[in-house]
Design a protein that fits this description.
about 90 residues; 5 helices; about 5% strand
Length: about 90
């Protein structure tokens, strides 16, 4: 396992552009890594072992149990947020 894989890069399936592992470690919800971090990085190195060592056990547990919102729910939330902004401004 590499000591620090933060410089590793790959194409992000969510963004559609190249990202570094360091970016994936900070872009999730509630201060956690991206929920897809295991799916994206398992071929490059042992991401599970690395994150287990680096993260607080409770945060690691949250990450492994994280279930993203369905797309429809996310879209409805974005629409409602845009409506509120339009009404306020």
């Amino acid at each position: 396992m590499p000591e620090n894989p933060d410089h590793f890069g790959r194409r992000c399936p969510r963004l559609g552009s190249p990202v570094l592992f360091a970016y994936c470690r900070i872009t999730g919800e509630a201060g956690l890594p991206c929920f897809k971090i295991f799916d994206c990085w398992w071929e490059k190195f042992d991401v599970v072992s690395f994150l287990k060592e680096e993260m607080d056990p409770a945060d690691f547990e949250k990450l492994t149990g994280f279930k993203p919102k369905p797309k429809v729910v996310s879209l409805v939330e974005l629409i409602e947020k845009a409506k509120r902004r339009t009404e306020e401004g």
